[in-house]
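Re: the request from the purification team.
They wanted to know what the chain is likely to look like in 3D before they choose a buffer screen. I agreed to run a prediction and write the result into the notebook, where they can find it.
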Amino acid sequence: MGLTPELIVQALQLSSFDAAAYQKLMAPVPRAIRRPENLAGRPRVGAVLLLLYPKNGQLHFVLTRRQEDLNAHAGQISFPGGRQDDGETLAQTALRETHEEIGIDPAHIQLLGELTSIYIPPSDFEVHPFVGWQNSTPLFRPAVGEVAEILEVPLTHLFDPTHRRQEPRDFNGLTLQIPYFAVGEHKVWGATAVMLSEFFGRLEQLLTS
């Protein structure tokens, strides 16, 4: 695809890009991706990292499958990330969580920019996605108690429409249409799919303009 860190920075800074439109393409219907203004209190805040790196001549990004016995989002596919600690920036949160979950030294990562934050209603959580770059194929060291599997996905996977699918699921008595990215035997849905959809859209607009 010929993408460089400089081109990805350009994609993240597109001034005319409709992020909400691409986010909604992979959002469960119906579901809010922004926190309602009339909701009391403040959401919990965290950050995740979409890490890009070369492998076998192609750009890849990394996802993790969470352990099945975790209290939150057990078994789901996600980016490394988590809740912001006191005294740290959101960028520091994304880098720290990536180090803790998959063992990547923050010194090896160049942050290229951010995607649009999204809201996760069930947990009242506001997630800020960052995009990072590593010049070499990482040596992953997954956190045993948290990460069940590392998924290395070629970036070209996002550009194949046959990998974007949907299925009905029951949530609290409601049947929702759930879009997802098929990655091997796994289904990447929810917030992670929404963020990937925006990232794909930005790349698509840059490459076709």
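For the purification team: Residues 190-208 form the longest helix (19 residues).
Please add any questions underneath this entry.
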